[in-house]
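Researcher: I've been going back and forth with a colleague about how RNA polymerase subunit sigma-24 might be arranged in three dimensions. Neither of us has a model we trust, so I'd like an independent prediction. The organism is Sphingopyxis bauzanensis, in case that matters for your notes. Sequence below.
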Amino acid sequence: MTAPATTFDAFCRAEQAMLLRYFRRRVGRDAAPDLVQEAFMRVLRSGAFDRIDYPRPYLLRTARNLVFERSRRKAREGAVLYPFDETCDAALPPEQMRRMVELDIRRAFRPTLLAMRPRTRRIFLMSRLRQQTYREIADELGISVKSVEKHMTRALVRCRKAFAARYA
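Model: Here is an independent structure prediction for RNA polymerase subunit sigma-24. You can compare it with whatever you and your colleague have in mind.
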């Protein structure tokens, strides 16, 4: 380590060449002088020069931080942000996966589904397999949303009982 610096001006003159080489290797010739000045300004503004005996390690840490900040800033500037539109960009499960789930539901709950009234079964399958909303189901069948809710409640009660009996 070097001896403690007496004045900030002497410290700058002693460390300037080393710091300039450091920045040139990392960010290039054009940006290096500006970063040297910024590093010295940060050390001076922080008040660390007057408080510590050996300011060179503090200066080097400041220089390293400046390089990190610069690279982060460049990465942010180069990033392109696109607005997210949930109606168009939402992830959809693959068709094959949906088909597998459909087959599993039909296989596991086949006896339960067959025991349901035809309209209840149809509403349940429209909701679970076609993933239609209650409003869409009601509009398609010409019934109220309240009726769809009642049919779904009946179907879900039957499914829960069948599941409990099967896996209990």
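Researcher: What would you highlight for our discussion?
Model: I'd start with this: The chain has two domains: 8-78, 93-163. After that, consider the following. The mean pLDDT is 84.
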